[in-house]
Amino acid sequence: MAIRRSAAAEIEVLLADLCSGDAVARETAGARLTVIGVRAIPHLIVAFDRAASAGARVAILKVLEATPDRRSAELGAEQLEAEGADSAVRAAAIGLLGAYLESPESTRVLDTLTAFILDTARPDALRLHALDVIERALPQVLNPLRPRLTEDPSSAIRAWASASTSTGTPLVDPRLAVEAAAAGEPADPRFLRELVPAGAVDTPLPTLHRLIEVACDREAKASGTPEQGEWLAVRGLVHLALARRASRVAVYDLRETLARAAGPLPDGFAEAAGLVGDGACLESIAEQLARAPVPPDSRQDRWLDDIVRAGRAIVERERLTRRHAVMKKIARLSPGVASTLLAPASRQ
Predict the structure, then answer these.
(1) Other CB atoms within 10 Å distance of the CB of residue 148
(2) Does the pLDDT value for residue 40 go beyond 70?
(3) CA dist., res. 155 & res. 171, Å (int)
(4) 273: CB partners within 8 A, 6+ apart
């Protein structure tokens, strides 16, 4: 039976809100689409395919998780297996698949999750997330896997398997680990880097803001040691997690970090700036470009490409032109940099 035009139109309006950068509108639309239920599923799947941002895709998968349907399970499996899929989207796909472990789709879902867990090339955080999802729904199913996982190349997976064998409960829940680190509990930044992409997907925004502050403090205390760089990398990933959820709560730290950077920053900073950065972030990017070495080495060259892309995204989002004060300031710093940033953002 076809959906009435008025109902279909309502769903399209809600999908536009769900895929928008407005966190409140997105949350409201998600709740409403969940109530609409199975009628919205075809629209959600189409919207997923055309969604431009990882945040929008994650939001769609969250709605589908609450609406059991074979088509939703198929989409989750496809995203988990897709090459190059965003880590936050994969984390949401794992959550979606977990909702089907006690459904008629359970056999295929379990096979998909198990194959993902056993693939040692996958990120530890996502493998742990998949283990946790199965453990919560079908704990006995993992018993045959535990001996194999105790010999896994990943220390995090080995620790999970050893703890599970002795206590019957999972050792690591990515979200709980993120929340514990944000509360100031001791944390290994290298391990935390693996957990943030999955753990930050639905962690409250104030908690992620606190984790930024904790990481800054740990970074300062580790000055001159390898751990300093690890905490900086954690901070970059948290900034990206916040940006993908359209939150500007820590833009001040993003802006200051870009301004102080003496060289390329870890992954997350440039992309976050492109998503939520403001005019002050653009100035920091311009300063980085103006003082870049010529010719740059390969690492510097990648960093410059990343911040140019971020800067152009800010210019486009804020609708900046040469007449705006921030662009006039950048032009005084370097006319060439201003022209570079005003060039159209590339579409990929």
Answers:
(1) 12
(2) yes
(3) 12
(4) 243, 254, 258, 281, 285, 307, 310, 311, 314
